[in-house]
Amino acid sequence: MTQANHANKKLQKFIGKRNEWFTAYDVVQGEPNSILRQIHGMLLTEMSYRVAIQEHREQNANGISSPPIMGFLLDSGYFSSQILAIRKLLDKGTDVLSLRRVLDDIQKNKKLIPREIFVSFDGTPYDIVPFELSTPGLQPMDSPFSMQMKCRMRHERFDGLSRVSPDKRTSKDLIHDSIFERLEAWLEEGGVENLRKISNKYVAHAADARSRADVVGNLLAFDEIEAAQRAIIRVTQAIFDIILSSDTYSPVVPMVPSGYFGNVWDGNSMVVSTTRMQARWDSLEEIRNEWSKGIEEELIA
């Protein structure tokens, strides 16, 4: 096999794997278990609970009480749903659509992503050449200038991913193992492993005392759920936006349907609470969309 044929075969194998990874993410229309749909479902449930429980407490503060069991049932459902959502996203099964499965598969197949393929898999030129605009102004995405800028950006990004300085670049550079170690560290720092253990020991199974010995606590707080969500979202975006060059941007939080919050009964009349609840949602959304900032800089630091 000639060198050109070998390179082309490797490129086609990468494109096939990349399509497989993005299919798991959210390429297939109507796939209910895609990673993105799982993340959006997790956030929609979590944020809706936050908005609803705050509204519930405000109504109680105004003299509108409800049975204590309501709070217990809401809390129980909230934490169980979040633990299950996190557990599914970290499922290592070979027949599931999960973030963990994609991360492990990319690391296993990192030899399919040398610098040359990372830069040029979609027709982007590999070689950086001087280029001057003949017509100043905004350039089309497929213009020679735009393609050259994309080439430069990808080389610079891969310098960080491969831990190779610009003066020592080669077409065969690979993503450095420390990048995957950092992604693993993000998940560990987010406490997702302990949440998985809590799921196994308390939610999915009733583990005995000996089996529960390595679990840190059995009662969760909002900040623990948030930390796990943040870790999952940052790893997801690092994989698909940076390592796999999605070249797209989407906000972290899904858009809610019009009229999602509805009206609330205050004991005497219907009170339009949409504005108040929407404001709480917007505040939570702003915090979560901040999670996307600084990912690349932290990943390749």
Q: Give the fraction of residues assigned to helices.
A: 55-70%
Mean pLDDT: 83
| Strand arrangement, major sheet | 1-2
Q: How large, in whole angstroms, is the Cα Rg?
A: 23 Å
Our estimate of the beta-strand percent is: under 5%
**Total domains, how many?**
2
The N- and C-terminal alpha carbons lie at a distance of: 39 Å
Backbone shape: globular
Low-confidence stretches: none
Biggest sheet descriptor: 2 strands, antiparallel
Tell me the number of helical segments per DSSP (H or I, 4 or more residues long).
11
Question: SSE string, helix = H, strand = E?
Answer: HHHHHHHHHEEHH
Question: Pairing-aware structural class of the strands and helices?
Answer: mainly alpha
Structure description:
- This protein is mainly alpha-helical.
- The chain folds into two domains: 21-112 and 176-300, no CATH class; 114-174, no CATH class.
- It contains eleven helices and two strands, in the order H-H-H-H-H-H-H-H-H-E-E-H-H.
- The chain has helices spanning 3-27, 35-61, 68-89, 99-108, 115-120, 144-162, 177-189, 192-203, 222-243, 274-289, 295-300, and strands at residues 263-265, 270-272.
- Strands 1-2 form a two-stranded antiparallel ribbon.
- Helix 3 packs across helix 8 and helix 7 runs antiparallel to helix 9.
- The longest helix has 27 residues, at 35-61.
- The chain is globular and about 75 Å long.
- The protein starts with a helix and ends with a helix.
